[in-house]
Amino acid sequence: RGGEPAKEIPFAKPNSLTKVYAVASGKGGVGKSSITVNLAASLAAMGRKVGVVDADIYGHSVPRMLGVDGRPTKVEDMIMPPAAHDVKVISVGMFTAGNQPVVWRGPMLHRALQQFLADVYWGDLDILLMDLPPGTGDIAISVAQLLPSAEILVVTTPQQAAAEVAERAGAIAAQTHQQVAGVIENMSYLPCPHCGERTEIFGSGGGQTVADALTQTLGARVPLLGQVPIDPRLREGGDTGRPLVLDDPDAEAAKELRTIADKL
Ligand code: ADP
């Protein structure tokens, strides 16, 4: 396989109609994957054709969160991605044995990403979401090289310390000449189930801080796309493979996620 020339990436063609978003965060645990799967499920429920590339090498969790239990199959020289809730998914986890940790180096990651984009039969997608590993690692550079037109979505919590790290993840776009489509603040507040009063568990303002800082750095307006509250059912949905946006569409967090999905 080593000597074969790499296949063309359909999304990289100038006439591609697929919008590609790379979902990035400064650090792990801010809800990047949860946001990705809920946006994907929202978009699919709206009738858009959606795919997700789970490129979070060490934290791949998209298949579980979306309830994908199928495996990729091979048809001729293409890989058919399994799907759940009308979302096609390919994950690094589908190509590793069991739950073993992945110790891949930069060039291998690049090659894997290239294959996920070129060798997987995605069909005509409206939107492709890529769940990147946290931080400003090799994979962000690979995305920029393989898909220069991919736009970045930055996920952060409201905490100022987290915002500083998220800002660095977004600022990589200045080097790669990519656009940052917007910032999503997650875990913004906990609404009281009885009176609706909001408790700002992780502080406030982080999302706006990142959006403003990136607007400055990039010289182009980077909007704060939304603020998703804490909802224990969002976590439960991730554990059971039923995204909150489908399971309880009236939940405050679900409504906010739909509003964000509408802007993509
Ligand atoms: P990341 O992809 O950034 O590492 P995850 O999506 O895995 O983060 O989220 C980290 C943890 O926080 C998970 O257990 C997830 O279920 C939970 N979580 C994420 N967002 C929310 C939210 N808005 N409300 C409640 N739990 C959340």
Automatic annotation (TrEMBL):
List keywords of the entry alphabetically: ATP-binding, Hydrolase, Iron, Iron-sulfur, Metal-binding, Nucleotide-binding
Q: Which domain of life is it from?
A: Bacteria
A GO biological process held by the record: iron-sulfur cluster assembly
Residues the record lists as binding ATP:
G26, K27, G28, G29, V30, G31, K32, S33
- GO MF terms on file? 4 iron, 4 sulfur cluster binding; ATP binding; ATP hydrolysis activity; ATP-dependent FeS chaperone activity; metal ion binding
Record function comment? Binds and transfers iron-sulfur (Fe-S) clusters to target apoproteins. Can hydrolyze ATP.
The entry's family comment says: In the N-terminal section; belongs to the MIP18 family. In the C-terminal section; belongs to the Mrp/NBP35 ATP-binding proteins family.
User: How does it associate, per the subunit comment?
Assistant: Homodimer.
Could you identify this protein by its name? Iron-sulfur cluster carrier protein
Placed within the complete protein, the shown segment runs 97 to 360 of 379
